[in-house]
Structures are given as structure tokens and as C-alpha cells.
Amino acid sequence: MAAAIEFAKSTPPDDVPVGALVFDASGRVVGRGVNRREANCDPTAHAEVEAIREAARALGAWRLDGCELVVTLEPCTMCAGAILGARVKSLVFGAWEPKTGAVGSLFDALRDPRHLHRVEVRGGVLEEENAQLITGFFGELRELR
Fold it and tell me: Which of 55, 75, 116, 144 could form a disulfide with 79 if both were Cys (CB 3.0 to 4.6 A apart)?
């Protein structure tokens, strides 16, 4: 998680600082992503989606069997769908996202028993450090207004 926090700091200036890393079964980083919605003018350019795309290219397969996704913020509905679709084995996330979180805050899209694929989930890892990335970003944004 510490590596994801450090990577989140490389998020483009106008984007919410979120970092995501995909690790293969041997623990090697095969995908990285930060939010780039503003930078790329792309509503799907969330850190998780960017990391999943890079991991799939690196592994030469859309199925990320045995992979773990580590992200600094609880995934939204779109990202939860991408995690399920990519068959990610496990998810570790930092701060809870009470407004858009889809892995326990608003609802739990990943652990719904009706899904064919099951994702192991651990949330709240280094929660304070991860939350500070978000609150710091929005605090600075408010000061600029």
C-alpha cells in the first residue's frame, strides 16, 4: 500500500490523487495507474482501470487470474465492474469512499453472492494516510477558489 500511496502522488495536478498497482501471483508489479480523467478528458480513466489495462497488456491476457489490485481509495461502481470483469483475485484498498464507494460504503458490488467470480477484499489499509491524499487535494482546491 505504501507504494500505491507514493504512486498516487504522481497523479496529474487537476485529477483526484488515487494510485493503483496490480501485482501478479509472484508479487511483481505488472500494472500501474493514477486518475487521469481531467488529463485525458476520459471519464473511464480511473486509477484502477488504468492499472488493469496495463496489467492485461503486460500479461497478454484480459484475465488477471491470481493478481491482486492495491488502490488508495475504495473503488466506485465502474471500477468494481472492471475488477470483476478482469477476474482479479483480490483487492486491497485504503480509504473508504462514503459518496461513491462500491465495495462496502454505498453497497458491495464485489462480494455479491450472485456473481460467478469472487474477489477477496481488504479495506481500510493505511486508511488515514490514504484519506489525507484526498482531503489534502480538496482542501487545496477550495483554497484556490
Answer: 75
As to burial, measured by CB atoms within 10 angstroms (0-12 exposed, 13-18 middle, 19+ buried), residue 31 is buried
User: What's the pLDDT tens digit per position in 25-53?
Assistant: 999 999 999 999 999 999 999 999 999 99
- What mean pLDDT is predicted for residues 57-71? 98
Distance from first CA to last CA of the chain, Å, rounded? 32
Catalytic positions are 48
Residues 17 and 3: beta-carbon distance below 8 Å = no
Rounded alpha-carbon distances, angstroms, from residue 27 to 11, 30, 115, 118, 127:
23, 9, 26, 20, 22
Task: Say if CB 101 and CB 74 are below 8 A apart.
Answer: yes
